Predict the structure of 3-oxo-tetronate kinase.
Amino acid sequence: MRRLGCIADDFTGATDVASVLASVGRDVVVAFGPQRLTGSEFADADAVVIALKSRTAPVEECVSDVLDAARALRAWGATQFYLKYCSTFDSTSDGNIGPSIDALLAELGLTTALAAPSYPANGRTVYQGHLFVGHERLDESPMRDHPLTPMRDSQLRRLLAPQTAQPVANLFLDEVRAGGETIREALAPESPRTVIADAIDDDDLRALARASDPHVLLTGGAGLALGLGAEGEAADRPLPHGAPQGGRLVVSGSASSKTRSQIAHARSELPSRKLDLQRLAAGESLAPELAEWVVEQWAAEAHRPVLVYATDSLDDLAAIPADERAGVADRIERTLADLAAATLDHGLGALLVAGGETSGRVVQTLGIDAIRIGPQLAPGVVWAEAAVASAAAACDGSADPALPTRSAPEQTRRIAIALKSGNFGDERLFTDAWEQLR
């Protein structure tokens, strides 16, 4: 089995693809940045996913981070490479998917990139070159109004062509289903190019992955990983050290329609607080009062999860002037990450984070280097185990100055953490996820 090196463009995407790799029998570890690729757990793994925070980063920064990750994976010993991006192809006309593909082809000396964003388990399929979300084309789905990457076209070739210097071709469903030899011919080495593949079920994705030789750069959603393991599926892996004890917290910075439905359901069953976006926009610090409220809820009912969220309606975003939204989004991420850090010393045992950008900030603030994948909660969402220093201050320098100053780091302990893409999971996820920790 080839040693697989995967680069994910956000932290939830990293746990997404890692969960699929684990489900097909791969021994996989997620590292949060190429500099974290150290330790015996990486030497023993046969697949490593490096999680970046590059999906909406400036193109130059994104490409630099992707190349750093590729070099780290090659030094680790990867013989096959996989660029994982969102199954809804979140990107602008300037990138970042196309520039990342171009840079990796050049860096790795490869000739062909396979682009397969399909993920049927989560309703993402590609047919005749068009990307569908459920029964709707991408440009007619809720992704049309995504606040950072609005998707106004479903034709992937049109989306990708302006982003890349390489030719873009299609591999249609009849060719995919003609079998491995036809796929291999379509991906045969020649001048650098990207081939966008149709896939409407898991068998299509398995065929594409298994027919891809090492000269092919694999790119797409997590579904492509179904063809990169042993035959058959492995059982869910338990958390290595068992279910942790302590308080349970959900923090949500996502504004996606799926997350909004999860919030609506959870509010009826869980103690919940909504961020005051107007106060955030004015520069107020909310993390200390939120942390105090969360700890009060745990004291009242120790094992009941608590929810803190940013938005439950698109009207929340519309109320913020367009030129201030990026700043408010950053304050949301910072507030939720600082809240998670503030609760560590008060018994936080399990943390569910909704939203890719929020997940990235939380992981960085808690100083988490790597995670081991555990049981699945939904397609693309898993519990994982992370080591944290219970009295550690924020490690990325972004800690809220209004939070209490902490003592030197105490003994490292382990928490359960789930990083959820905004679009994943059913409406009961926030209330039912905890069943897997029993």
Notes: The radius of gyration is 21 Å. Confidence is low (pLDDT under 50) at residues 392-409. Residues 247-437 form a domain with the Molybdenum Cofactor Biosythetic Enzyme; Chain A fold (CATH 3.40.980.20). The chain is about 35% helix and 20% strand.
